[in-house]
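Hello Y.,

Per our agreement to keep a running log of every chain we model this quarter, I'm adding this entry. I've kept the format consistent with earlier entries: sequence first, then predicted structure.
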Amino acid sequence: MAGAAAQFPFGQVLDTLEYGSAVEGEALVKKWLDKHNRSFGHFINGEWQRPVDRDNIPSKKPSTGETLATTLEAIAEDVQTAAGCAGEEYKKWSVLSPFSRAKFLYR
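Predicted structure for the entry above:
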């Protein structure tokens, strides 16, 4: 597994959402948050979505209360969209063997 972590340094893991090594400090995370203006929408169907007219919710560091970023609050329409996409993907996912699923989760 050490070889896989070496292929995906943590900074790249955040960008690609690939499996990789754990964070040893917060500097890389804060740099990644800054790169995204510390503001996130909804990750639906493999893409970031930013629907209009949604409230921003602060995401806070539990140990200090520091606001690290904001994310959009979901409404019923957003949840329905995400659930619909997940349902379509489930049809493909459910026919895979556990071994095949693990390859996706730990690649």
